[in-house]
Recover the amino acids of this structure.
């Protein structure tokens, strides 16, 4: 069996899972207006990690060496997750999987080009920096699969542990808000002028966010009553490289595959942490997929209304919150949601509430027609 | 208008990488989308960039594109009406 | 239950190889763009979406086309066909094109059709769209082709019965160079003579075509 041992979340809402969890319970929104021509010529809203606090926190742990913004976030995130876990990061039986869409892409900016060696923009080099920092003996497995990278990385880690390739895997992921990414999403006209409103009738696009997340998976539980990873799947829409499927086909297949591997029925699923980007097409597509899986009545939310779409971190930070909702038996209100605006009924969580959470589903979808899902379960 | 339409044909073929299509293959009255050109949602966004880059016209709402980019003719008419002198 | 490599394709240095044999060669040395167009014409593909792709997606797409022409993939349920690819440069060549489009505030025109290709798994999307593959996907980045990991991972997917067949390989492009090695692997009792899907065999086949 594969167990979730520990986790960390770094976003605009805090530097640990507990800080972020408390902020989410309070309904905090970290998406703020940004007016910085380095990102975009006009103001836009985004969720940014506090730069001063990042420097402060990093100074506490770093002895030497210079690191990029993303590297600092990832190192801090891994460090915090390792403190809570019971694994040896220096063991050959421990691997690191890094989930990112664009890594140190800001190093392509003209004014940053000479700050680091030119390989530093390469994703494998980012993997090497992380591995060297923690003295892990294995080559970092870098996964770059658009917005499903985080969930897919957890699926891959579980596959590698259950096939006994490794005993423990540190799954980490992150992306920063950069001029590169903001301009790209702007050219897609997919950014909302306000903090995004997943599944809402008035939703009008997504909000970008930055962050890092880490989840330690292991063949050993940390303690009795741990949460286990019990199934996952990924599937391609085979329809369009940027537009989600109009039938939810890939997302539906990914969830079905996860349910099959987990051997759970629709009735057993207590909660869904959706991708919920708040674009017209994504949320509509997810509502179709959820409906087709027979999960219409299951409570569902998205955290993108709180901290935006954190790209390569999204699947990790959102799964980490899901695990804590399970531990606390608490469902968190879906930020930005007032009135359902998708064609199929959904049970969107409108206020924090207690609920027995035993078996929960995480969904993700992204560019390239990619979809992934995983299921976690409390082991009694 | 004729001249603008001819210019748009060349620009669209170039911008949308329609390598196997010649300017004469595109009828100004034919729908740009949903026919033999095989254009999709990314092409619609790319046409919005083209309008801004080549003609200085900004479209704020992508949904406006449906009408403007119906055909080469409608696109040329829109440019003529909105171009600043 | 051993997966075997049924067919494979290399593309590099203006040449296309099928199962280690020269399949197509351009006349003279062409730019990557012109060479890939020549391959497209040679394969007689009528697929206008090809021209919309960036060069690295074209490279992966064409290598897959050559492989799939001989893979007999119709026998498999599409939701059980995986695509697992890797490279070292991610999409850095296209990333730089997008970065240049935003460097000058007086000439600031980011292009959606460039930006969408700044994700390496878009190549997987293009292959999946053409062939309706709906199985497991993953795009990995390693400094060098990590045959040990790719074989381990794909074999684990077979063991867990998440796939019945898979496209695997390495598709890389830098400013100076390009190379693709894409193979089709499946579990099928009738192909005992095909190489086993192991680290050693993947490495051997990848290295069959050297400079």
């Amino acid at each position: 069996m594969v167990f979730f041992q520990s986790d960390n979340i770094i976003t605009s809402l805090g530097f640990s899972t507990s800080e972020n969890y408390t902020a989410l319970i309070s309904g905090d929104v970290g998406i703020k207006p940004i007016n910085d021509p380095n990102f975009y010529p006009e103001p836009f809203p985004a969720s940014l990690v506090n730069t001063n606090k990042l420097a402060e926190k990093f100074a506490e742990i770093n002895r030497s060496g210079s690191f990029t913004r993303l590297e600092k976030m990832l190192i801090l995130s891994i460090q915090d997750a390792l403190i809570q876990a019971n694994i040896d990061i220096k063991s050959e039986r421990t691997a690191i999987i890094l989930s990112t869409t664009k890594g140190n892409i800001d190093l392509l900016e003209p004014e940053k080009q000479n700050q680091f060696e030119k390989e530093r923009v390469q994703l494998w080099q980012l993997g090497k920096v992380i591995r060297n920092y923690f003295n892990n003996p294995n080559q970092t497995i870098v996964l770059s699969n658009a917005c499903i990278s985080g969930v897919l990385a957890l699926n891959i880690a579980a596959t590698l542990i259950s096939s006994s390739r490794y005993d423990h895997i540190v799954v980490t992921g992150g992306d920063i808000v950069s001029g590169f990414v903001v301009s790209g999403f702007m050219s897609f006209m997919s950014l909302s002028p306000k903090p995004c409103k997943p599944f809402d009738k008035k939703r009008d696009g997504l909000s970008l966010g930055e962050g890092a997340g880490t989840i330690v998976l292991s063949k050993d539980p940390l303690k009795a009553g741990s949460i286990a990873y019990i199934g996952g799947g990924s599937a391609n829409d085979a329809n369009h490289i940027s537009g989600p499927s109009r039938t939810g086909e890939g997302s539906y297949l990914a969830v079905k595959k996860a349910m099959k591997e987990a051997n759970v029925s629709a009735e057993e699923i207590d909660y869904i942490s959706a991708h919920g980007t708040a674009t017209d097409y994504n949320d509509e597509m997810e509502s179709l997929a959820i409906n087709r899986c027979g999960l219409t009545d299951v409570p569902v939310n998205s955290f993108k209304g709180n901290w935006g779409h954190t790209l390569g971190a999204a699947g990790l930070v959102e799964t980490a919150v899901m695990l804590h909702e399970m531990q606390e038996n608490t469902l968190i209100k879906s930020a930005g949601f007032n009135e359902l605006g998708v064609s199929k009924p959904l049970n969107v969580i409108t206020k924090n509430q207690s609920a027995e959470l035993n078996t929960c589903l995480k969904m993700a979808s992204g560019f390239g027609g990619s979809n992934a899902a995983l299921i976690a379960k409390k082991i009694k | 208008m004729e001249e603008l339409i001819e210019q748009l044909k060349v620009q669209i073929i170039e911008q949308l990488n329609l390598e196997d299509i010649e300017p004469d293959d595109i009828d100004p009255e034919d729908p740009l989308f949903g026919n033999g050109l095989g254009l999709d949602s990314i092409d619609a966004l790319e046409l919005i960039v083209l309008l801004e880059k080549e003609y200085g016209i900004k479209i704020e709402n992508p949904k406006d594109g449906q009408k403007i980019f119906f055909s080469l003719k409608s696109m040329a008419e829109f440019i003529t009406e909105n171009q600043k002198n | 239950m051993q997966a075997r490599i049924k067919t494979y394709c290399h593309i590099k240095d203006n040449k296309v190889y099928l199962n280690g044999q020269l399949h197509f060669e351009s006349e003279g040395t062409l730019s990557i763009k012109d060479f890939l167009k020549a391959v497209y014409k040679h394969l007689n593909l009528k697929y206008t979406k090809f021209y919309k792709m960036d060069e690295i997606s074209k490279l992966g797409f064409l290598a897959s086309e050559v492989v799939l022409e001989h893979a007999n993939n119709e026998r498999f349920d599409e939701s059980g066909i995986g695509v697992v690819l890797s490279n070292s440069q991610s999409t850095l060549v296209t990333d730089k094109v997008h970065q240049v489009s935003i460097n000058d505030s007086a000439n600031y025109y980011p292009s959606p059709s460039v930006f969408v290709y700044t994700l390496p798994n878009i190549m997987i999307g293009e292959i999946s769209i053409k062939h309706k593959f709906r199985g497991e996907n993953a795009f990995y980045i390693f400094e060098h082709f990590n045959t040990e990991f790719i074989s381990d991972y794909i074999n684990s997917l077979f063991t867990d019965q998440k796939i019945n067949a898979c496209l695997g390989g390495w598709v890389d492009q830098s400013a100076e160079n390009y190379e693709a090695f894409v193979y089709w692997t499946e579990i099928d009792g009738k192909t005992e003579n095909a190489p086993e899907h192991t680290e050693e065999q993947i490495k051997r086949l990848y290295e069959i075509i050297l400079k």
Remarks:
- Residues 2-82 of chain B form a domain with the Non-ribosomal Peptide Synthetase Peptidyl Carrier Protein; Chain A fold (CATH 1.10.1200.10).
- The helical segments of chain B are 2-15, 41-55, 65-68, 72-82.
- Chain B has four helices and no strands.
